[in-house]
Amino acid sequence: MENTYAVIMAGGVGSRFWPASTSQSPKQLLDLTGSGKTMIAATVERLAPHIPPKRVIVVTGRITQKAVQDALPHVPKENILAEPMGRNTAPCIGWAAVHVRHRCKNGVMAVMPSDHLVANKDAFHASARLAISAAQKGSLVTFGVRPNAPETGFGYIETGDEVSLGVNQAIRFVEKPNLEKAKEYLKAGNFMWNSGMFFFTAEKILSEIEKQMPDLKAGLDKIEGALQSGNESAVLEQVFPTLPSESIDYGIMENAGGILCVPVDFGWSDLGSWAAAFELSTKDGNNNAISADAVAIDSKKCLVRAPKDKLVALVGVEDLVIVDTGTALLICKKDQDQHVKKVVETLKAKGRTDLL
Amino acid sequence: MENTYAVIMAGGVGSRFWPASTSQSPKQLLDLTGSGKTMIAATVERLAPHIPPKRVIVVTGRITQKAVQDALPHVPKENILAEPMGRNTAPCIGWAAVHVRHRCKNGVMAVMPSDHLVANKDAFHASARLAISAAQKGSLVTFGVRPNAPETGFGYIETGDEVSLGVNQAIRFVEKPNLEKAKEYLKAGNFMWNSGMFFFTAEKILSEIEKQMPDLKAGLDKIEGALQSGNESAVLEQVFPTLPSESIDYGIMENAGGILCVPVDFGWSDLGSWAAAFELSTKDGNNNAISADAVAIDSKKCLVRAPKDKLVALVGVEDLVIVDTGTALLICKKDQDQHVKKVVETLKAKGRTDLL
């Protein structure tokens, strides 16, 4: 796996984790489950046995570049690429592919988000080996998470025949279903969650981009030329804003032929809400997950995040998410956490960008 | 009423209002209902039409002396008496009586707590006139609040015949009853809540103290002598700690003869809990009482107190008390607010006096 590079996408904000997540301190830079590590550091650490930090490339935004460097002291600074602006995942992955190919002509990319969780690392590595091996042979490969519930929050991948042990054909990508459809998919057994983790050679994805998104390829070519002549940053500044803002799923994957899918089952979570963070956090005897100095009287099933020097007292409450950042305080019923986005929208409308 | 002095007792802490109330910032120095004034300032302001600030004497503790002075800029500093330590209400009132008699031989004292609320000021003054008039004739007089519920949190005064218009005999003081007894009292109609507001001449209360608490009288005599010779503070330091720690109810009132009671009905509240503070606070359209910059989504019947520069977001919650002081945060189900004391006890046991 000497020619395998990890490409970690770290451009998002995660407004569902407000007030902990802000533009300055996005989800991937938080420790949402009280593990003691930021999510991005956990992602890099998980890869380390097979992909060492020097072959980890991180794509993030300028506002978070310094914080990402600080969170990943073992990743060389030149591996942390800062986009002049967010243009969705297709330009992000395309730019990373240019960098991988620049370093290694036949380099393989293991593309993954910076803010997901994996419970079983050994199972993750076993699946990654299968996917990398298939990618090395020139395929576009995706992880498909075997569903354990009729989730309506994810897209699905319909899989077909097994082409080799543990590797199936991907028949099609489907959008987030309604509950009825999701139940059908779960029952059918060959529909997997689209986890946003992909494997391919830099060469392969760039040739797919050339086929399906020629405008993007033209821009990437300019950047590649500048990279080779040591002039990348000036050209990036001019070219990046002109790249089409598109997702890799919609722009490439959904219409590419011959995609392979490795069905995986390694305790994956995209940690999409405060309630999910509660489920995956360590609990005390009253089933509270509290990362603060606290006194809890007759209180249970609460998630509490507060500064270390703050005393939080709970009296007679349950199923609450309580997040105190010093400048903002959220008190949210756990099963209403999808509405945290409404708070963010309200603050945006009020011009309170200082809090976002 | 030129010879009437108000004696405002401001020695308490009010642990039921933690974390807002602490030894440095006790209940009477807070604005618990969002009125814009501290409770003690509201108490002095309420009296002002009949008892001007120069005839207001406040008894408080040393730790809060400066804060009380700041809260009452119109009360002369020499009127704010600081006890070397709390010794309950009998020594407090006795010491104030010494000061009133020193200023005015036949001075009448209107004794009241600093942390109660009165909704109807006109009715309050009408009742006070009756009580002061009876006190001037040499009686011990008490306000008895006409109950509107079978409260078990107050002591009661059983009243007898009316001796003059609006003034009744007080037959006996009874301890806090159980619910059954409280219902009987409410039904009987002649049982009033003991509000802790008393009226008597300094002469009269000092002679009652002499009869019933001679040790206290002996100590007060020493302080009185020192006051006359301009040496009070040194003597106070020695004598005050030796005074018996006793309440005026138990030490004097319960066994004194000929007490009169003025039944009152002026919208009194001792504001004994966060839930009571919520009831008496101004609410917004969702029946929330919020003194902070806030965003409330699907939330109602919450009391929120936070620093002015903090943004508080509520999502899907109701009937909560949320108090953020910067150093501590309380989240309490409103009907469980009696257990806030348990938090205070727990912090005491942990040695966290910095938070109390």
Summary, kept brief:
In chain A, 32% of the residues lie in helices and 26% in strands. In chain A, helix 7 packs antiparallel against helix 8.
Spatial order of the strands forming the largest sheet of chain A: 6-9-7-8-10
Question: How many whole angstroms does the radius of gyration of chain A measure?
Answer: 21 Å
Mean of residue pLDDT values of chain A? 95
Uncertain residue ranges of chain A:
none
Q: Report the portion of residues of chain A in β strands.
A: 25-35%
The CATH class of the largest domain in chain A turns out to be Alpha Beta
CATH homologous superfamily grouping of the largest domain in chain A: Spore Coat Polysaccharide Biosynthesis Protein SpsA, Chain A
Strand tally of chain A, please?
17
By CATH, the architecture of the largest domain in chain A is named Alpha-Beta Complex
Look at the helices and sheets of chain A and give the structural class.
Answer: alpha/beta
